[in-house]
Amino acid sequence: MPPLFAIILHGGRTPITRFQVILFSLFVGIVILEGVCQEFIKKWIKRTRGRNWPTASAVIDIVSVAFIPDETPSMRAYPDLSYYQATLTYTYHNPDLQMGDYSRNFGNEDDAKAWANSYKGETVKIHVDPRDPTRSVLREEDL
After folding, report:
1. DSSP string covering 38-80
2. Residues 6+ away with beta carbon under 8 Å from 101
3. Residue 114 and residue 109: Cα distance in Å, rounded?
4. How far apart are CA 130 and CA 70, in angstroms?
């Protein structure tokens, strides 16, 4: 067993038991599984949110691209997790003028700008929350 894990598991007092190794491995596995499941749940919510809400027409008025830096603390052994976030900002009337946005991540700035600029001025179908018309969703399949 690597010395770091030995220090963590028993602090140098007594020999490490097989049970402690299994318990530590289970804990690490659960933490990793929770992280993976959390991403799947976020993606599922994003795909299904607003699916049954009434639709309205909206115009994409503003497009932007922002660099999102990797803020992983001192883990340079891992690849750089920075990305470019392209955002489409749209307006719609329901009955007052409302605004919403849709974002997508890219690894390359040119791809992000090309994608965002291709939607500038376009009319798209959005889904509006019937209980709160200030909330809306532009779904990926409606682009």
Report:
1. HHHHHHHHHHHTTTTSPEEEEEEEEEEEEEE----TT-TTSPP
2. 87, 88, 89, 90, 138
3. 9
4. 37
Pick from 30, 101, 20: nearest CA to 64: 101
Assess contact for 98 and 134: CB atoms under 8 A.
yes
Q: What is the DSSP letter of 134?
A: T
Return the amino acid letter for 96: D
Separation between Cα atoms, residue 12 and residue 112, nearest integer Å = 52
Number of Cβ within a 10 Å radius of residue 114: 13
Q: In what order do the strands lie in the sheet with 83-93?
A: 97-106, 83-93, 55-68, 123-128, 136-137
**pTM for the predicted model, two decimal places:** 0.68
| 20, 10 contact by CB (below 8 A) | yes
pLDDT for 53-94, tens place per residue?
999 999 999 999 999 988 776 656 667 788 999 999 999 998
Cα–Cα distance for residue pair 135/4, rounded to 1 Å: 50
For residue 20, pLDDT beyond 90 = no
Collapsed DSSP state (helix, strand, coil) of residue 83: strand
